[in-house]
Amino acid sequence: MFSCILFASTTFAVGDHITLKNGDRVTGTIVNRSDEAIEVETTYAGVIKIAASMVEKISPESVAEAKPEVKTPPDAAKAQAKAAEAPEKAPQPKLFGQGRAFGFFSGWTGNATIGYNYASGNSETATLTTSLRAVKEGTKDKLTVYARSLWFSSRGSGTAITTSNAFWGGARYDRNIDKKRFGFVSYDFERDRPKKLIFRSIVGAGLGHHTIKNDRTELDLLGGIAWNRTWQDDAKTDTPEGLAGTVFKHRFNGRLKVLGTLTFYQNITDKQEFRFISDSTVSVDVTKRVGVFFTIGNRFNNDPPLNTEKNDFLFTTGLKWNFGKAK
């Protein structure tokens, strides 16, 4: 009988396939099944009765062998349905490594501003300010680039005098240590020809703390050390400095936003020398891309070069342009 069964297993490839423990296979249709035996109807030998103890497996699964339906508890079913409906969050891209030029030219958000004031009469004055702030964020790190310029000229008695032609800016790279703490490296520069400041370069590093971070408000506190190299008309100096700073952002609604930055530098070798740069900006978005801004800026140096003024105070207003994905 089993020779016939073996022949049948190599001849037919339809119906139920029964594999025996000795390796033989039977192909046919199961017509009856019990705990003791299985009856299979074949095309070559009619109905064959096989002891259930001899059967290794049956494929495809017969109707009698189908597994009972497992009912999901109502709460679990609701949770599964909710998870299926919720869109999967796309993973945040790394800061660099993807896209053109290692991703450096994509994924930026920020704004650029321009302000211009002109007055005439007994004297003519003109003020031009520009600024740029761009941020690129990854899963664990962030790069911020910023720059600002100020040009001021006045004309009286036929003589034009440029009293300010300054440009300053820099970049800061942050790397998260955990949810609250992060490390940073920074580079800042400054130039102001009317003040005889040819160039100032500051390299810094330190630790920061995400004191507040939610959808509307962010407050970062910074502390570290820096190296200040300054070129003036008559000298070049190298100075180690301690630095402390803060960055505050708050969004009142989708249009009204506030941004404030303050960086303080203390000369380590001379406690009498210090300086700071602060900027506070209130902006209102008129459209998704265009808005207006009001900025109060201050640059203070208690030991300015060549007897120039210690303090530069600046109030500007103008237009701003948002780029990248609007938040």
Unreliable sequence segments: 1-14, 61-70
Main sheet specs? 12 strands, antiparallel, barrel
Radius of gyration: 38 Å
What is the molecular shape?
A: elongated
Mean pLDDT: 81
**H-E order:** HEEEEEHEEEEEEEEEEEE
Describe this structure in words.
The protein is built from two helices and 17 strands. With 327 residues, it is mostly beta strands. The protein is elongated. The termini are far apart. The N terminus is likely disordered.
SSE arrangement:
Layout: H1 2-11, E1 16-20, E2 25-33, E3 37-42, E4 46-51, E5 55-59, H2 74-85, E6 109-119, E7 124-137, E8 141-156, E9 159-176, E10 181-192, E11 197-213, E12 217-232, E13 236-251, E14 256-267, E15 274-285, E16 290-301, E17 311-323
Antiparallel strand pairs: 1-2, 1-5, 2-3, 3-4, 6-7, 6-17, 7-8, 8-9, 9-10, 10-11, 11-12, 12-13, 13-14, 14-15, 15-16, 16-17
Task: Using brief descriptors, characterize the structure shown.
twelve-stranded antiparallel beta barrel; 327 residues; disordered N terminus; 2 helices; mainly beta; five-stranded antiparallel β-sheet; elongated; single chain
